[in-house]
Amino acid sequence: MAQRDTAAFADFVAARSPALFRTAYLMVGDHGLAQDLVQEALTKTYVAWPRLREVSRAEAYTRKAITTTYISWWRRKAWRAERPRGEVPDAGQREELQGHGPDVVDRAWLWQELRTLPPRQRTAIVLRYYEDLSEAQTAEAMGCAVGTVKSQVAQGLKRLREQMGADVEMIPTSEMAVQR
Fold this sequence. Notes:
Elements: H1 6-28, H2 31-48, H3 58-76, H4 78-81, H5 93-96, H6 102-114, H7 119-130, H8 135-142, H9 146-164, H10 174-179
């Protein structure tokens, strides 16, 4: 059995936790759930650490653990029962942000719309556009085929375009999605 290098794992956690948290937060949209998700994924990575052939692949392994765990949680729907719910923001929320620059308003509104997507579509879009992964890397992280990533991204972008109406220029076109 391979030795567990706890110092190397601790270095990995210290260096990559902020990026892993960002990915998890963009998927679940909640700080507490994102922390839980990263913690669970890092636990899985720690268990697998001696088996990882290349430590440089640890981030990809952890990102995949985040993705599959998130989708698993969503399917079980158990974690959603624990989530406190406030008022559902209405379209007026965009006007509330008017004191801020247009970029802040647009990002906040796009984020609100992104959170309405089903988990696999949101995950595919987060990994492709926020994390800037290739289709192959996204497919690896999601544990699916590249064609599935393409269809999930296309469906998610289509749904965002339908939801956002006149503000569609904020969303990449299908041609942009293909070029990436």
